[in-house]
């Protein structure tokens, strides 16, 4: 019986789920686990994130071609319809679903990890890697991180939103050199994807459309402002309201300027460093 972790990634949806998966896999230590991703590119470099074995799969329905009936899986994706969801939950001997949906319904045959839900077979937690809780000197005033994907070049189309602001840019994993050149004039400095952790921890303010980056920046003692992209899920907004993380709905310059001005007196709620609780839940559920 093998253990898999499937995570939905790609150049149209970014790496938020992957970053969360990498955190959980690292927390599990020496557990023998194979990461399955819906993008081959991130699978090829996943070892840089502490993942020993990763395999790219084209679509979620290809998972049974790699696994066997009775294997175990941690599943982080919103690709499931009702039929496929039931089939996957019965195919694996242990099916653990990571969800950000505040209205998610748990099947009898599955377990859940959620930032919202509680109850039998449900583990409530916000997943952030412990190293973000190690405070670092804040040497960057404001960093802008759109996310790891911008296939439609939405940032370029809405770059006027940032006019007049003094910002440093953290590029995303799926950005390309010619695109960086197009948006570079709007920023005072460009930080490459490889510097992600350091930039997140050393920024006083982070404006980002990445939910995971907002949470990691909050853990690092920064002041995140979440930019809700029209093409992104809104499932994190209830969580950010609970944490008092300010957000801008869409590419609204006036709204963004207001949120920046309000940071002077604004205080977000803190996060608890407790990835060990998630690791314990998984080890117990998977009989590891």
Question: Which properties best describe this structure?
Answer:
7-stranded parallel beta sheet, alpha/beta, Rossmann fold, single chain, 6-stranded parallel beta sheet, 288 residues
Please explain how this structure is put together.
Helix 2 (40-45) links the parallel strand 2 and strand 3 (54-56). The chain contains eleven helices and 13 strands. The protein is of the alpha/beta class and 288 residues long. It folds into two domains: 3-128 and 275-285, 3-Layer(aba) Sandwich (Rossmann fold), CATH 3.40.50.2000; 131-262, Rossmann fold (3-Layer(aba) Sandwich). It has a seven-stranded parallel beta sheet, sandwiched between helices. The chain starts with a strand and ends with a helix. Helices cover 30% and strands 19% of the residues.
């Amino acid at each position: 019986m093998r253990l898999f972790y499937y995570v939905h990634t790609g150049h149209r949806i970014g790496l938020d789920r992957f970053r969360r998966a990498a955190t959980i896999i690292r927390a599990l230590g020496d557990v023998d686990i194979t990461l399955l991703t819906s993008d081959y590119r991130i699978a090829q470099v996943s070892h840089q994130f502490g993942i020993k074995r990763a395999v790219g799969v084209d679509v979620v329905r290809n998972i049974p071609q790699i696994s066997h009936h009775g294997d175990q899986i941690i599943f982080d994706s919103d690709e499931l319809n009702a039929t496929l969801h039931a089939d996957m939950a019965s195919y694996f001997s242990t099916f653990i679903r990571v969800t950000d949906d505040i209205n998610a319904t748990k099947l009898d045959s599955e377990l859940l990890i959620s930032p919202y839900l509680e109850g039998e077979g449900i583990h409530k937690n916000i997943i952030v890697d412990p190293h973000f809780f190690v405070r670092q000197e804040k040497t960057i005033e404001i960093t802008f991180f759109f996310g790891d994907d911008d296939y439609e070049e939405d940032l370029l189309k809405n770059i006027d939103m940032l006019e007049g602001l003094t910002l440093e840019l953290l590029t995303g994993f799926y950005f390309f050199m010619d695109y960086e050149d197009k948006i570079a004039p709007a920023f005072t400095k460009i930080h490459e994807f490889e510097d992600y952790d350091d930039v997140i921890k050393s920024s006083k303010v982070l404006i980002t459309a990445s939910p995971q980056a907002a949470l990691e920046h909050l853990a690092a003692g920064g002041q995140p402002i979440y930019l809700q992209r029209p093409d992104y899920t809104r499932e994190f907004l209830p969580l950010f309201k609970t944490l008092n993380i300010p957000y801008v709905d869409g590419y609204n310059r006036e709204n963004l300027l207001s949120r920046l001005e309000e940071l002077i007196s604004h205080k977000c709620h803190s996060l608890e460093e407790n990835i060990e609780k998630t690791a314990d839940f998984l080890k117990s559920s998977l009989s590891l």
